[in-house]
Amino acid sequence: ISALAAMDSLISVDYEVFGKVQGVFFRKHTQAEGRQLGLVGWVRNTERGTVQGQVQGPAAAVRQLQQWLRDTGSPKSRIDRAEFRNEKKVATVQYEDFLIRK
Known about the structure:
The protein is of the alpha+beta class. Helices cover 28% and strands 39% of the residues. This is Acylphosphatase.
């Protein structure tokens, strides 16, 4: 972890993305984006047609993924909205990787 990231507090946030987000490789792109930002957590499809998950890591990087989930997504997705809840500071991250859950 860079010195800058070490100064940044670690946070954990739950997310859910609404819109056309299933069948458009949204989970795969979320995983790739999260890994590229050095984040850990998970992503899955829900039975109600949304994508949800949890992300953990340096606050600045988590903010970048939140913006990506709100505004970008996978190329064929159409995001109506993204909701974030249960944000909290964590002493250490609880995952070793960014995983796609079934």
